[in-house]
Amino acid sequence: MNEKLDITLTVNGRSHALGVEPRRNLADALRDDLGLTGTHVGCEHGVCGACTVLMDGRPVRSCLTFACQAEGAAIETVEGLADGDRLHPLQQKFWELHGLQCGFCTPGMLMLAAGALRENPDMDDEEIREVMSSNLCRCTGYQNILRAVRAAADVMRAEGAQG
Amino acid sequence: MTENAPNLIGQSVARIEDPELLTGKGTFAADFNRAGQIHMRVLRSPVAFGRLGGIDTAEARALPGVIAVWTAEDIADLPQIDFRMTKVQGLGPYRQWCLARDYVRYVGDPIAVVFAETAFLAEDACDLIFPEIGELDPQLDPLDDPSPYMPETMPGVLSEPAVLRKGSGDVEAVFAHAAEVVELELSVGRHSGIPLETRGALGVYDRDSDTITMYGAAKVPHYNRGAIADMLRLPVERVHLSEGHVGGGFGPRGELYPEDVLVCYACRRLGRPVKWIEDRREHFLSTNHSRDQHYRLKAAIDERGVIQALDAEFFTDQGAYVRTHGATVSDLAAALLPGPYLIPAYRVAGHIRLTNKTPCGTYRAPGRYESSFARERLIDAIAARKGLDPFEIRARNLIPEDRIPFDRGIDALGTHVVYDSGKYHDLLARLRAALDWDALSARVAARRAEGERIGLGIGYFVEKSGLGPDDKVRLHFYPDGLICIVTGVANIGQGVETAMAQICGGTLGLPMAGISILHGQTRLIDEGRGAFATRVTVMTGSAVKLASEALLDQALDLAAGRFGLPREELRYRAGRIWHEGGASVTLCELAAEYGGEDGLVAEGIFRSDHMTYPYGIHFAQVKLDPGTGGVQIERYMVAFDVGRAINPMLVEGQITGAVAQGIGGALYEEFVYDAAGQPLVTSFADYLMPTAMEIPPIETLIREDAPSPLNPLGVKGAGEGGITAAGAAIASAVEDAIGRPGVVDRLPLTPERVAGWLRG
Ligand code: FES
Ligand code: FES
């Protein structure tokens, strides 16, 4: 149980060697072993989505994923979302449209939306609502989160069309 | 003489707090770490009520990596946790100890605490502690006769700590001659704030200075610092609390709980940093629950449906112990039950009852969510009896404008209840117009004729905000133009920093960019009241305004001296003071010349003995699924007079977030217990918090028609009104859809209940 496994995690493009107990979940490994505390833990039972990160581009609950399961995958966390000082369109729109209050759910919301938009950049409003309903927010009542995702999707599509 | 650049106050600017939070750089409680830290885990009672015998901790102590295991005996020098706010006497015996003594009184009651090298180990060790508990029959219904609290050790002490009584006018006399009497019995279920971040704390002890610092503080750091110092019998300077980011407050978070005290106590006694992070199940079991009230209302009305007297009795199920809030919830419920209506004679008895459930405290709009539900159900019942529409019955009962300021003749939280300003009829008329009520009613009637179960409902509320007695801030102006405001307020996610920067920038005619707010640090300022009771914008905001004005004052004096010119002839604009004759100096230059290391320093202290009373109306349109009893909210609107909105976007955000919580409490969220007192709700799979699918767009009608005369900004708090009448409006709409007046008598409106009412 307490024996440690040596694994390598690739997070935001950088690889990290670490030793973890088999029972250590990815959220704890990111937060406690790698110091990436932007990923939050709100329930540890897979409902709230605060711990959402991307694994090979798809959103996963890092509290329900063992760290050793993530070996070999490309993991993305909120710390890697911005391009240097330039905020990701999702971050920018969450900011402009007041899509956060306490900010605890925000990293999970951002990563969920980032993953979903990568899979389907053309989500309509109802699809956005449905996707975003997999994470909980206790502060905002969601409306500004939905608006922000919509607005960011539009920006990203326009940027994609240009580039 | 001052002239300012376009005013920041009143503008929807984006928040200065956000960039950190958006990039994962926030520091929430669990993000604090210290080298050498150990982890604390609490063993909690598995039964609702029982006599606590011996606790065998030998095996747990023997586990390698375990540093200490304590039970009540090991911390015998720690007293009970005291009340933060209550003037009600007689509650003392019911305070909670940090670890249970003699009895356990709810599932989740802390019995023992383990300190170990890792969090896993601490949890493993808890499984090796064996308490002997002689199980007893729990009291679960607050309406049952009070029972012995701790039968053997506190004989004669019963589970009704207090009954609050308030009133004004001659209720008996009115009832003796009443045209008609309407009676109702109503309940609001048990639910709570449930912030997305669980509680947590890191206690760090510095041996050289014999000082404890607790990271992860929230809401009321200064008060808690004093309370912890008292409990540990240390001078207050030896304890510091430090607030990082807080993942939602809403009432429960930031109160002083056993774990906070244990973390502080242990880091000093064990000489190592001690970290404790609550898990979600623990949160459901141990962090304050709320609501859970039962009302019996009796109103004397005249022929027109106008209430002449209200005789009310209610019961608050406060759970196992009386925690820091003391009698606050019942006090506020009793004081604000009459709401916006004239009601010339009023009498209320609020029973505080204890049961073997998780202890309760406040949750956003404490006592008002519940009492607004009860009162508005009563108004609807009178409307039904008199055949009046929901607007007409309210118009007949509202306090007219010429009676405001309106003195209710009773007290709340030790202050006199005087509604400071309000145009109640005007707001009602505006909502009616905004909804185009007659056309809307016609559309609904048409859909009903097609067989749809549609209903409309409204709920009127009066809130309170801006609890005194005072607030102090210190403002530093540095030569480089940066401004730092140090305040004892707390940020629980509501946007305090932005609002305070707007008030400062607005007053000085300066941009927000150079303004920073330091809060929640007892090391930096000796006083602070924190963030509760929707007091921040009113109290701290006013103090910021006064400090900004004091800075300006000081600067004008300095400039007058420097120029050798009379102060009255100087003008100010956007950071610069000048004289028509050509003399000119900037605040930066003055700070460089006259300010020391701390820059120019000004203080603002704002005092207020009275609360301000914002008010508003919720509207809901619902559609019922006759098969499942499911309630779908088709449309939701809140009309809300906030006196003055510092940042309308943030006000709207507060309203929308609060409505979502109000919908949760009205339809989905409830702590349910089985017959043995076992909680059936211990995860997010059982506690149904609304998601983006359940919350419709929220329309708002934010008004500034009745600024508060009690503070220099005219503001009233906007943090709670979005939840206050949510239960009331939704219940009203659901009952309208069911079409049988008087059936909807409790929250939450679960599908099961709604289906039952539909069947009749
Ligand atoms: S922490 Fe992973 S879903 Fe809640
Ligand atoms: S912003 Fe607080 S939980 Fe979403």
Number of strands of chain B: 30
The secondary structure category of chain A is alpha+beta
Low-confidence stretches of chain B: 1-5
Number of domains of chain A: 2
CATH superfamily of the largest domain in chain B: Aldehyde oxidase/xanthine dehydrogenase, molybdopterin binding domain
**Helix content range of the residues of chain B, please?**
25-40%
Total DSSP helices of chain B: 19
The quaternary structure here is heterodimer
Which distinct ligands sit in these coordinates? Answer: FE2/S2 (inorganic) cluster
CATH topology of the largest domain in chain A: Ubiquitin-like (UB roll)
Work out the helicity level of chain A. 25-40%
- Roughly what fraction of the amino acids of chain A lie in strands? 15-25%
Low-confidence spans of chain A: pLDDT under 50, at least 5 residues?
none
User: What is the total number of structural domains of chain B?
Assistant: 3
Mean pLDDT of chain A: 96
Q: Could you tell me the radius of gyration of chain B in angstroms?
A: 27 Å
Spatially, the strands of the biggest sheet of chain B line up as 4-6-2-13-10-11-12
Largest sheet of chain A: 5 strands, mixed
The shape of chain A, in one word, is globular
Provide a descriptive summary of the structure in words:
The complex is a heterodimer of chains A (163) and B (760). By secondary structure, chain A is an alpha+beta fold. Chain A contains five helices and five strands. Chain A has two domains: 76 residues, Beta-grasp domain (Ubiquitin-like (UB roll)); 74 residues, DNA polymerase, domain 1. Helix content of chain A is 36%, strand content 15%. Chain A has a five-stranded mixed β-sheet, with helices on both faces. In chain B, helix 9 crosses helix 10. The radius of gyration of chain B is 27 Å and the shape is globular. At the A-B interface, helix 2, helix 3, helix 4 and helix 5 of A face helix 1 and helix 16 of B. One FE2/S2 (inorganic) cluster sits at the interface of chains A and B.
